[in-house]
Amino acid sequence: MPFDINAAKELAAGFKWILLCKFTFLNGSTFYCSDSDVTFGGQAYLGVLESQDLDKIQSMSESGVDIPASMTFHFADANAYVYLNYERGAGRGFRGAKVEARLAFRNALGAENSTDSIVRFSGVCDPATPTSETILEVRAQNRLNASKKQLPQFLMQRHCAKIRPKTASQCAQANDEDSDFYWCGVTDPGKPDCHNTREGCIAADNLPRFMALTFQPPKDGGKGREYVSGAQVQLYNAGNESNYGEPFPLVLGRGWVQAPVFAMYQDGNYTNLEVGLCVDNIDTGYAATVGTRVVVNGIEMPPAGYDSPGGFVQLKPGNVGWWNWYTRGTRDGLTTGEVAARHGGKADPYGSLTTILVTVPRQVASGESKPTVNVLFSGPKIRVYSNPSTHTRVWTDNPAWHLLYLLANSNWRYSELDIQSFIDAAAVCDEPVPYTSQYGGTLNHARYKCNLILRQRRQAGELIRGVRQTANMMLQPNRSTGLLAVAVKGTLAAQQPSAPAGTNYSTPVSSKTRAGVAANGYVAYRFTEDNTLSVRGIPRPI
Known about the structure:
9-stranded antiparallel sheet; single chain; 4-stranded antiparallel sheet; mainly beta
């Protein structure tokens, strides 16, 4: 007789739990195993799993994980079948393989399994290690454990950090935004390997997407003539030596950034600064432009123009100093022709980087050292979903979308995330909360907002945990699909307005919504003396 987990767990004499594991190797091949030979959902599982150790749960741990941080699998492998075929097999190896562990019930007497299973763990494996002549051990870190991942991910360096697609299958993914090869975007596997160098990008006809910093003007800029005095003055230039090894700024939301100066060069009257803001595309329209403030050594500079649907529109900043958009953060930075026309053809194209060109009087920045440039701006456009299959790229300060961005830039792909749960969480964050202004009027603000500015590398897990705490969010796998889901903590009525699946108590409990309106909520489970056992299996009082 078919049964599901929710029904089986309430039986007086319960069935046996079985652990179903699926390992997916880097070459795409799979290995299904369990603690006994079993067929579940039409898939045969090899009974070589002797035991497993599941780490304890640590709420708000340093790894940013609220579910078990790691899991260790012990295989009975006396004949070395698992070791030879899956650890040493061609194109395989447990290191870097993904594992998904599910729990199900099995009625051994009736040789039946539950019709459903629960995802208990999803992780990335370390190499297999024989611990004895008969046991092979594989340890896996939870996919949510982003303590080894550092953000911002791109560093300022002489070599491009983008991943070049080389094979035909990799080049086929070059225009897929979810692919690691999108940033580089070479679609022809016949083009020469760039080796992540400027010369290689030129040979592969892909120079506009080159992301590294190579331009190094001579320190001595020669002599120039001042317009007012007519006197000859010493000119100075500066390149990127002091920037190497530092990350490009990471900006989500809006805030002040001490922006890196990539290049500095002078004439007799002005100092020109090529300044980096962030990776990826930002809004360069009128409202965003006039809302951007650029301060050089304490002196604010006005904008000289903005982008409009009809093209670039010039403003009138005067002749004291100004700034202009230089590259817009798209995959293609400066065109090949624009590179050839700047710095004797040695200019950096700044592919995928948003940069500005700031022109200030020499009295503001003498050139003997790089000036301090602080910029207030709104960060790049990121994915915002209207439904699980439709998204646009817009600027947002909603922490749910910031969390999605951080996860997608850590260990997860969008296809592995429960997008609908992020849509629901974002709606909670955007809920208007009324307040009384200092002038006595009633206004509204969003329930949760987030602005994240990074100039130094931090552990991705630390950032994920911080953004989660901003909006009381928690991450956990969807028990049926295994996709990573997010939920915003709240009152019982807000979190569980209806009885959750598997509950043994369907009586509503008085609660309130987030807005403070009286409403009912439902508990997940009611523990009593009748359904609670001690460690020895003896009923005990609550």
